[in-house]
């Protein structure tokens, strides 16, 4: 069977007719077993027909060296743009050749498939496993439980890169000559970061730790792993809000979406019965407006978290020491010769949950000293307070989770007493805890109000209930 090559390239020969003719000639020839030869399979984006060479007498002599008969170079016509698939395998010559094999993919997809997986950040259809990699920027949310940013990133992405940064601007001396971060707070923070890394590793992930400015270090990490989104919890103070703005601007230049969550207060900012700009500037007015508002349910701690991305080969890094942060170790003995109280505080989510468990048990054991309306004014005794503020401030403990667990303990205590035909005094500290956490919410929301981008009229902030009522 002879075919004019020029006619073949110009498309004047019917490919189906050629294939059928070849098949008829092939069936007339007897099949002979031959030694295995190296077969070269080339799939091209242009449908071309390669005529199989007729067997020659030299085939037997080359059986001992099957690869020697192959040409050292393969000439491809200039009309072919690029091959889509190229493979070399050892097969028997009795295998019939494949003709007109269509190209199943584009060369660009094979070389770099990741851009084709990207979706527009504004696309509402981005759902589970819709992102290839999400960078989770952890700050004052050093926990696994009730961490919406971390859980959402793990549910929506193929890989997750949790990152904690030690910003050099948070250390050193302030303009007044004081330490921006003292040695006790820094030691508590280092313990919290270490505990979070252990929790993430137990769930199949890890924590990447760096010393650097977020607007530069986060961009470098996102570029290295090919992240298409950054998830983080919003903060409220002036410096933290300015840092968020710089990160957003830097990520926008890289085409990376930045998505913020809210998780530092008892009540969610989206559930407030007023716009943040219209928030009352006194606690009394704030408390009255918050009456009857429901607390959102917490986010369950995931049993497994998506692993780190393979791209970029990012190392987790070492957790710095106090000396690395420019601080001297905190003294363990106070000036009066007694052990320093701060040294007994161990940072981390694990310690926070243990303290919450002990605090709930102590609240249920408190005798009843309540007001006329039945609300417990405070807890008292040897501990006097819960002393969980440091873990709340670092985000090792969620205020919603704290309220939820204490309420569960109180409900169980009341239910057990009812089954036994008795009664239980007090409310297990739930009302007192609600009162204290509401104060905390007031200060965080009012700070957010005056540190937001939208400038509001200058108005004095007071904690007195009736000052501006």
From TrEMBL:
Residues noted as binding FAD in the record, renumbered to the chain: 385-389, 436-443
InterPro entries reported in the protein's UniProt record: Crypto/Photolyase_FAD-like_sf, Crypto/Photolyase_N_sf, Cryptochrome/DNA_photolyase_1, DNA_photolyase_N, Rossmann-like_a/b/a_fold
Cofactor remark from the record: Binds 1 FAD per subunit.
GO MF entry, a single one: DNA binding
PROSITE patterns cross-referenced by the UniProt entry: PHR_CRY_ALPHA_BETA
UniProt key word Lipid metabolism: no
Cofactors demanded by this protein: FAD
Transmembrane segment boundaries: none
Single GO biological process annotation from the record: photoreactive repair
Protein name stated in the entry: Photolyase/cryptochrome alpha/beta domain-containing protein
Lineage: Eukaryota, Viridiplantae, Streptophyta, Embryophyta, Tracheophyta
């Amino acid at each position: 069977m002879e075919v004019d090559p020029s006619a073949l390239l110009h498309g004047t020969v019917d490919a189906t007719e050629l294939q059928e003719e070849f098949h008829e000639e092939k069936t007339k020839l007897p099949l002979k077993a031959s030694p295995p030869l190296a077969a070269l399979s080339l799939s091209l984006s242009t449908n071309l027909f390669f005529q199989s060479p007729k067997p020659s007498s030299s085939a037997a002599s080359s059986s001992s060296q099957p690869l020697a008969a192959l040409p050292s170079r393969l000439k491809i016509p200039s009309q072919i743009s690029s091959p889509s698939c190229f493979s070399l395998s050892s097969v028997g010559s009795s295998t019939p050749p494949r003709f007109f094999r269509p190209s199943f993919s584009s060369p660009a997809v094979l070389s770099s498939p990741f851009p084709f997986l990207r979706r527009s950040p504004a696309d509402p259809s981005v759902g589970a496993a819709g992102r290839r990699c999400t960078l989770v920027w952890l700050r004052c949310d050093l926990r696994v439980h009730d961490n919406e940013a971390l859980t959402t990133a793990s549910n929506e992405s193929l890989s997750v890169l949790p990152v904690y940064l030690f910003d050099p601007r948070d250390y050193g001396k302030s303009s007044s000559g004081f330490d921006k971060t003292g040695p006790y707070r820094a030691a508590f923070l280092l313990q919290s970061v270490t505990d979070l890394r252990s929790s993430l590793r137990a769930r199949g992930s890890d924590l990447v730790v760096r010393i650097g400015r977020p607007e530069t270090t986060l961009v470098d990490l996102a570029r290295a792993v090919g992240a298409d989104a950054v998830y983080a919890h919003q903060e409220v103070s002036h410096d933290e809000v300015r840092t968020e703005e710089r990160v957003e601007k830097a990520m926008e230049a890289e085409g990376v979406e930045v998505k913020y969550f809210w998780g530092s207060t008892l009540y969610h900012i989206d559930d407030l019965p007023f716009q943040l700009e219209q928030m009352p500037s006194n606690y009394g007015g704030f408390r009255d407006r918050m009456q009857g508002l429901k607390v959102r349910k917490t986010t369950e701690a995931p049993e497994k978290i998506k692993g780190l991305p393979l791209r970029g080969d990012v190392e987790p890094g070492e957790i710095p020491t106090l000396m690395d942060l420019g601080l001297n170790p905190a003294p363990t003995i106070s000036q009066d010769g007694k052990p320093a109280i701060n040294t007994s505080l161990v940072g981390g989510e694990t310690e926070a949950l243990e303290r919450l468990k002990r605090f709930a048990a102590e609240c249920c054991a408190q005798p009843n000293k309540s007001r006329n309306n039945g609300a417990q004014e405070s807890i008292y005794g040897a501990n006097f307070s819960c002393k969980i503020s440091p873990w709340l401030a670092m985000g090792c403990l969620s205020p919603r989770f704290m309220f939820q667990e204490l309420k569960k303990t109180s409900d169980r205590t009341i239910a057990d007493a009812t089954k036994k035909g008795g009664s239980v005094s007090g409310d297990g500290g739930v009302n007192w805890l609600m009162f204290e956490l509401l104060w905390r919410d007031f200060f965080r929301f009012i700070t957010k109000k005056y540190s937001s981008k939208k400038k509001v009229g200058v108005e004095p902030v007071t904690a007195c209930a009736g000052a501006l009522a």
